[in-house]
Model the fold of this input.
Amino acid sequence: MKYIYDLHKTMLRQSMVVVYEGEVTQDITKAVLAMTERNMDAFGEAGNVKRKVFNVMVECLQNVSKHAENFDAESNAKNNALISIGKDKEEYVIISGNAVLNTDVQMIKGKIDQINVMDDAELKALYKDIIKNGSMSAKGGAGLGLVDMRRKSGNQLGYDFEPINEKLSFFSLKLVISRGGGE
Amino acid sequence: MKAINIAKTADSPSIILDKANGLFEISGRSMPLNAQKFYQPVLDWLDKYSKNPNPVTTFWFNLEYFNTGSSKLILDIFDRLEEMKDRTEVNIRGFRDEDDQEMELTEA
Done:
């Protein structure tokens, strides 16, 4: 059972607010949001920072709900994913990790690389183009999540892909929201 | 015409569409996982309403937060309201100037 203590120490060291591993449903999204909001309220976080963290978390968690692939059929897990919310003096760090199809990796990379190098005006133009001309996916996505996370966080999106097997990769997404001097 | 009256939940807004009493209002947090599915009854209702609308249609959006999926559907509601402007005086109310996201929607 020592790993519990190790996990506890790691979480304290990394200033983890919430860590969740499992299927990400809309109910889990609401619960993780409620825990994070309570933590931010308890520490008297600034309103504009709370709002940004909330916005970015919704898009991040709902993306996972919609797109995570089942990679462990034996455990009966549907779309097992990892969600972690951490903070330090300067920033909040929201990380999601979930399986995606290898055939989607290049598409996801391409999208993130594209929006990472855009400035505010370009991001605004892209957002408007998608909201006006894009169509809703079968899963109810508007295709705006990544652009919105980039804009609301005010920072580039960090990402990583680790191969799981010949069909799947583990996709990690890191979103950083600065705490100081928000507009 | 039958009114729509949906109570708010933790992740979806209250919706009142009531032709007889001239009430058109969406209030609360809007972050359903499938916004298309959630708002489809609203779009269907507006399609029917637009055939024989009241002289004035004042639509209130009192949304404290909406996710990207909802923003797309709110824009669809704007489009429906725009289309009926030659048959009814449309007023869109409730979007606050200080909120960039909301203002962008009205510009889009």
In short: The domain at 2-178 of chain A is CATH 3.30.565.10 (Heat Shock Protein 90). The first strand of chain A starts at residue 16 and ends at 23.
